[in-house]
Amino acid sequence: MLSIKNLHVTINDKPILKGLTLDINPGEVHAIMGPNGAGKSTLSHVLSGKAGYTVTEGSVTYNGKDLLELAPEIRAREGVFLAFQYPVEIPGVSNIYLLKAALNAMRKHQGLPEVDAMDFLTIVKSKVKLLQMDEKFLYRAVNEGFSGGEKKRNEILQAAILEPKLCILDETDSGLDIDALRIVSEGVNSLRNAERSFLMITHYQRLLDYIKPDVVHVLADGKIVKSGGPELALELEERGYSWLEGQAA
Amino acid sequence: MSTSAQEIEHLISQEYKQGFVTELEVDTFPPGLDEDVIRRLSKVKNEPEFMLEYRLKAFRHWQTMPSPDWAQLKIDPIDYQAISYYSAPKSKKEGPKSLDEVDPQLLDTYKKLGIPLDEQERLAGIAVDAVFDSVSVATTFKGKLKDAGVIFCPISEALQEYPELVKQYLGSVVPTGDNFFAALNSAVFTDGSFVYIPKGVRCPMELSTYFRINAANTGQFERTLIIADEGSHVSYLEGCTAPMRDENQLHAAVVELVALDNAQIKYSTVQNWYPGDKDGKGGIYNFVTKRAECRGRNSKVSWTQVETGSAITWKYPSCVLLGDDSVGEFYSVALTNNLQQADTGTKMIHIGKNTRSTIVSKGISAGRAQNTYRGLVKVAKSAENARNHTQCDSLLVGDKCGAHTFPYVEVKQPTAQVEHEATTSKISEDQLFFCQQRGLSAEDAVSMIVNGFCKEVFKELPMEFAVEAQALLGISLEGAVG
Ligand SMILES: Nc1ncnc2c1ncn2[C@@H]1O[C@H](COP(=O)(O)OP(=O)(O)O)[C@@H](O)[C@H]1O
Ligand SMILES: [Mg+2]
Hints:
The complex is a heterodimer of chains A (about 250) and B (about 475). Chain A is of the alpha/beta class and about 250 residues long. Helices cover about 35% and strands about 30% of the residues of chain A.
């Protein structure tokens, strides 16, 4: 469903991704690990269409479409979801309002009518429960005054309601205590199905104890330098990244 | 500049949809201002003698006054001799008697503006006075209001029918020499609305005036006077538009409100005068003196304004809290874009005991616009236990605009409590991207954020106006679920 071929990306002429290749099939969970500054967030931003990145070479195909041609909101409506490493605050706009506006934007794109207010509340409340959040969060301004962990949980709540096809999680585990990590992981696991794919960026093996990946990749110096099964993550936990740097996959 | 910064700039610039001109036969005075012009004006309007005296006194005073110091505003000198002081559609010199007599072309104009004057078509519960350039062309639901004892008519008509009432209150809140523009207005005002709510009456419908500038090179000098007698309630709305022209046009209004014991007046404005083009060419100079006197005990006045138009806005709707326990409120959204300038705020003058005031100001600045909040909270020695709370928030869209806040506080009474909070924030590219990543267009994202920012003020507007205000900011209603 997602095919990244030889992707080269620069920020202000500085090369960040240098020939990244990655294929994800429907229903697969891929983990990307790698040292700080390797380009993991850059990859998530390029896939979701953030401004400021220049693709100098390579291609990204998503469900048969040239993903890089699409405006960011179209990518989102086509099912690409990014759980941000640093979710922003939007004062004055309530969480539930954003959720409804986002869901209706998706539905409109699919030719569906706006969601019924009662149905919407039912869906939202069930997802809030799944993530063990307080309903009060729905009526607070988006992420305003949320703790780091609450922001991350809020990102997964949005994913649960928007039901994306490709879910990119950028360090969703960092900033979570062990209980929150378990709850968020259960939330993510409940979203797994035969169609939905995940690209999970993380530093830590512990997330992968909860969410079992199909494939683990190591991203270093702008490239995938090694790919393997879940056991690769354990090896990285023991040996660090340095033995892989400078290698090609 | 990055793509999304350009996008923000593009998004906030909307087209002005009320910029058309109605071609009509008109009676227009040649440009120029002297005592003869004022005499002619008073005569055309068939005014009582005291009114001419009032105008001449104001004019003589005005001639001695220096034009105001523009504070934060940049403005070219205005040539008062180049302006025409009267312009009216030809057939309506005498003022309309009934809707059937109104020129169909005028009815059409208002219909195009979304203000059908046909009583059947009107939203139930709103009476409209339509002021076109210098005259009122129609007032709806007069009969129904009269049954309730409410007087709602053009001020020119009130001068004929209720001269004593007008004489008693006109200029009692804003004296002729109050400031440069108030003096000018007192000398040359043409029309506006007059409202009197008798003792104990709750006005059965919302009253509204719709101001339209149509003629070129004319000034509009609107005069509105609202009196709420003891224990009465009224909600009054005001809307404004003008054609797109390359020249600046002057709108210098005076609005006076009087609330007697236990009376309440709610005054809402959606101001959408032509703001000029994106290079700052043309647009209305909106110089307005709006003041309310809470004369009676336990009286209350609320000003709510949404200011999106005009090249320059200079406006400080104020409350003089004379009566003990009286309450003044000011809720404001001022949006400036391109080269628009707004210097707006309020004055809360506490004189009575236990008087309370609330100020909520939301300034939004985009393009290269400048937006200034200027507010005065004054507590006299007599105002024991006076309270004020001021909250003043600015939102910047893009990085070439400016927001300024000038709160002035004068307190002479030690038991008073005066609080001021201010914030400035900016719509960031990260916020926009976040919203886009959730499937919203950047346009909807800006609207959503701006609307969220203005929420506290919009909820003070009567329903129909809240909808109009949101449409004006190009946004959909927030909080429908929450
Ligand atoms: N806006 C930017 N301007 C310049 N360099 C940037 C910018 N954003 C990220 N970088 C650089 O790009 C590299 C990759 O960053 P990032 O993708 O955030 O790494 P990771 O998520 O793997 O830690 C880093 O060297 C970082 O400093
Ligand atoms: Mg990162």
